[in-house]
Amino acid sequence: AQKVTQAQTEISVVEKEDVTLDCVYETRDTTYYLFWYKQPPSGELVFLIRRNSFDEQNEISGRYSWNFQKSTSSFNFTITASQVVDSAVYFCALRRHSNYQLIWGAGTKLIIKP
Amino acid sequence: GAGVSQSPRYKVAKRGQDVALRCDPISGHVSLFWYQQALGQGPEFLTYFQNEAQLDKSGLPSDRFFAERPEGSVSTLKIQRTQQEDSAVYLCASSNSLAGLHNEQFFGPGTRLTVL
């Protein structure tokens, strides 16, 4: 069975702090894809990153970085020097190689206080 | 348009009413997906279209739910005889790859449906 767990329901930090959002997944597939999406209050889901199971290199994009570790089935997301505009719900998702259906975590609500 | 658009953004219906939710995907995108998102949860897959063909409707929760995409562009999700448990945000997504396998899905802002 495929499953994505985001254990942190809500995180609140003060602006400029670093924050890490956890994502743990379950799959028996050897080929799969992991995603992070951001859902601001406006409602649309904004694509942040896609990572395939064969690429364990960490990725950095500006203040965002992702740590993919197959050994612990985790794909964590870190925001450095957080800003108020980062406030949103963040979703981690899993997709099997030959299946278009995304399996979503429950999301983590991130609140950045000024 | 530049992105996926959905209308209406908000819909309030009395239990038993029929509703129709519209999705305008990004122009040229062959794949279109509908999701249902309950409060505090991640989206749940409802159905998938490749152009005008509905290839997967396994996620539709009941036969009260019906989706169409007759010309392979705009799609409509219809819910008949709405029930309170249908209250959710309905998200539409499109992708320029078949089944969205090679490219990410772009999401619309959603329609928040409240059934009283």
Give your account of this protein's structure:
The complex is a heterodimer of chains A (114) and B (116). Chain A has no helices and 12 strands. Chain A is mainly β. Chain B is an all-beta fold. In chain B, 0% of the residues lie in helices and 47% in strands. In chain B, strands 2, 4, 5, 6, 9, 10 and 11 form a 7-stranded mixed sheet that branches. A 4-stranded antiparallel sheet of chain B has the order 1-3-8-7, with no helix packed on it. Chain B starts with a strand and ends with a strand. The mean pLDDT of chain B is 93. The interface between A and B is medium-sized, with 20 and 27 residues.
Layout of secondary structure:
The complex is a heterodimer of chains A (114) and B (116).
Chain A (H helix, E strand, L loop, with lengths): L2 E3 L4 E5 L4 E3 L2 E3 L5 E8 L6 E7 L6 E3 L2 E6 L4 E6 L8 E9 L5 E3 L3 E6 L1
Parallel strand pairs in A: 2-12
Antiparallel strand pairs in A: 1-4, 3-9, 5-6, 5-10, 7-8, 8-9, 10-11, 10-12
Chain B lengths: L4 E3 L2 E4 L5 E6 L6 E7 L6 E7 L2 E4 L8 E4 L6 E5 L8 E8 L10 E2 L3 E5 L1
State the share of residues found in helices of chain A, binned by percent: under 10%
Order of helix and strand elements from N to C terminus of chain A: EEEEEEEEEEEE
Beta-strand fraction estimate of chain B: over 45%
Report the count of strand segments of chain A.
Answer: 12
Most extensive interface: A-B, 20 and 27 residues
Overall residue-averaged pLDDT value of chain B? 93
What overall form of chain A do the CA principal axes indicate?
A: globular
Helices and strands of chain B, in order, run as EEEEEEEEEEE
Termini separation of chain A: 41 Å
Largest sheet of chain B: 7 strands, mixed
Strand percentage of chain A lies at over 45%
Quantity of strands of chain B, as a count: 11
Largest sheet of chain A: 6 strands, mixed
Oligomeric state of shown chains: heterodimer
Secondary structure class of chain A reads mainly beta
